[in-house]
Amino acid sequence: MKLFNLLLFEYALSAIKRRGSKNIFIFIIFFILIFLLSSIFFISNSIKKELSYTVDSLPDITIQKLSAGREQDISLDVVEKLSTIEGVSQVSPRVWGYYYFKNAGANFSVVGVSRFDTNYKKSIQNVVDKYDKTIFDKPNTMIVGEGVKKILEKNYYDKYFNFIKPNGDFKKIYLAGVFKGSTLLESNDIILLSNENAREIFGMSEDKATDITIRVPNPKEVNEIATKIRLMYPNFRVITKNDLRISYNNIFDYKSGVFLALFIIALFTFFIIIYDKTSGLSSDEKREIGVQKAVGWKIGDILLQKFYEAFIISFVAFFSALTFGMFYVYFLNAPVLRDIFTGYSILKPPFELPFSFDFGTVTLIFFATVPLYIAATIIPSWFAATLEADEVIR
Amino acid sequence: MIKVDKIYKIFNQGKPNETVALQNITFQVKSKELVLLKGPSGSGKSTLLSILAALLKPTSGDVEVDGKKIAKLPDNFASMYRRENIGFIFQKFNLIPTLSVYENVILPLIPSGFTKEEIDTKAELSMKKFSIYHKKNDLAKNLSGGEQQRVAIARALVNDPKIILADEPTANLDAKLSQDFLSFLKELKNDKKTIVIATHDPIFFNLDITDREIEIVKGVMK
Amino acid sequence: MNLLTPDVLVILILDGIFAFFGTIAFFLSIKIILKWDITKTTTTQYRLEKQSYLVATIIKYILFIKLPLFLYFIYVQDKLSVYIPGAMCAVGVVNSTTYGFYAMIIKIINLYLFSSWLVLNKVDLENEKMPYTKIKFIFFVIIYIFLMSEIVLEVMEFFSLDPARIVSCCGTVFSAAGKSTIASILSLPNTLLVSLFYINFILILFAYRLKNSVYYALANILFVATSIISLISFFGTYIYELPTHHCPFCMLQSDYHYIGYVLYTTLFIGTFSAIARYIILLAGIKKSNFGKISLIFDTVYVIIVSAYPVIYHLKNGVWL
Hints:
The complex is a heterotrimer. Helix content of chain A is 57%, strand content 17%. Chain A is built from 14 helices and 13 strands. In chain A, a hairpin with a 4-residue loop joins strand 5 and strand 6 (106-113). Chain B starts with a strand and ends with a strand. Chain C is an all-alpha fold. In chain C, helix 3 packs across helix 4 (98-125), helix 9 packs antiparallel against helix 10 (259-282) and helix 10 (259-282) packs antiparallel against helix 11 (290-316). The longest helix of chain C has 38 residues, at 43-80. Chains in contact: A-B, A-C, B-C. Chain A binds chain B through residues 2, 5-8, 11, 14, 18, 287-288, 290-301, 388-390, 393-394, and chain B through 46-47, 50, 53, 55-56, 75-76, 79-80, 82-84, 86, 88, 90-91, 94, 96, 98-99, 103, 107-108, 110-111, 113, 116, 119, 155, 159, 167.
């Protein structure tokens, strides 16, 4: 019992070529489906990876004061009490906020840095260390991310920028430098300046801060300490790094959920198309099958041929679409599709998608597509193989 | 060798367009005989031929070939029987136009599991016998009528069948090609094949190589 | 409900396809059981003959997708384990719901059932009279029930996974302290379980020698159980080199050189071939290669699985 008939396989291959236009149509549809699917998975895998880098660099615990459900400036006198909690290694008040630049329709993240307190984010701390003299020695200077620089330039601000304070006055801040963050997702729209200037721009008093971050060296103690703080200050919102990780992932998954719903509809449509296209047999095709049967092909032989045809088309489409998807995502950085995930904002970070190849994802894409294709050809193939030869060869 | 026993074939049985194609057909073809099924078009000759090839199942009755009943075999057995014993020559040649001569000729052999070498040998033998070997890589659609005819015959003979069935083999041929076909027929008779030809072309009537002529009119034997 | 990750969704979609085509096959099977008569020459009979090919094609399709899907299913369960507290691998996930364990068992049974059907089908088609057609389709009706049970259980398992509930992982599921039925079997002393395994294998050898296909098939079916039990309780611990690690799935991972795949595949081929041989024999065909294949694969399994403790002992001078 010969397990594999090469000649039959070759015949299937030639049959595909001979029915060129129909097969190319199916091939292209299938290709597009897999391409879109794999691109979306690759992008989302990359972004998840990016985000996990980001989350890692977030503070262990963040404390905000809430009043009437809204965030309010927090008073600095709680800092001392928090420092006394066991397990806490550092308590850092932060001054930061969003500044809306009306003309450009862009939101900047304005982050205050101080000379003496270490900033939670290593990247920001590096920048501070690098530019130390300029921010603190020369008054009224700032360092901005690349995206900010571009926008300022577009709006003819070259060496300085005029912030509008809450009371309507202008505050001129000079541009001392441009930096790149280690994770591009986050840092593109950031402006760094001294805490004093930040307070001035936001109209915040000296004894207040936007929020307070706490460093807990031992990750196992984070939850305990967070609970303690919640008990100490019931009107504070206490967020741990893990909470952030979960909520990032949730936003992410929500978008994936919408996408999945669309995907199922796409699959269904695709199934119907394939079914339809493979069932419609031209008179030539029917005659060919009639001849095959007349010269002694069994129903089983024709079924096998049809299966080989489906197999070849789907596998070739699968591998080529997957490869093209990888090229599109990792080489071209997925123009257009990427925006679905990162949201629309003027300051779209031109970040590069880190390469992450996951065999599990490839298998997932395979099971989501190829069996579906082959399933769609079951009934049409059977129908073709059981044609009454007698009628078609006359 | 071929015993046709009370074959009836009714199409669309029970429906308004019910047609009785064959009624009570009974005859025998001895081994190596050449039998002519004469009759006008629509008389049921092609249907009978299909039944002899186990390509169509009768409504009742059976066909026995060398002692084996073949008319009601399940598909895979019928196909095997056909593959090993029958060479079918169709009315319109029924070559696959986009395949080469070689590929057309080997069509019956592909599912059998022969090795490439075995198939090449058989194909070469058959193509050479009918003088079409020199065109083996040409596409069928680019051949002349006569060449196509020879490919069709080469294909029918490639598996060295005992029985040749020809359905109106000269219907689409001009006089010259029809004569050519007759000479092929003589060759096949010399090769001791059992031959059944369904035709209403007078060129076949009263030939000395014909052993018997059976007339079928409106599905009934005369 | 938020555990409806894409992986789970894909498995559910495929389940949907299996259910859809399975049901088509089911209705066709009923038709064939009721009306099949090979002696008849009616259009209906000829149509039924064609339709039986459709059923066969559907079954082939389902089986061929099911085999790799089974492995994927385990992989997905493994991935889900991060969401379920206490579960460290697929075992924890499967055991976190009442349905998981039974879904797993029926899945394995179905692989054998589908494969057996295909053997029966082949045997039927090779006989001019097609004598097993009705039996074959009655068999499928039974298989259909198993198939739908598996799908229902699987769907319910996925939907009842609860990240808020803590579960046990293989350490407790398979240990003497556990309360499940598996635990009670596994709490039997290893010497007993391993002896049963080797005795079973010897029975297989005897049955082969005696050329008795019935006993051979039965011994192999039993072998499925003794192999898996002994693998979990004893041999597995030598693969992991950890006396408390009783996981049937972890050996599928790269850490252990994917040896799990080799073991399970050889076990399946070996035991299934014995069943195939019996089916073929029932059909009156004396000769088949399945007997030899079965013996070879069973032996390979025994050798590989025994090698682990032996090598461990040679390396370390002690048993775990």
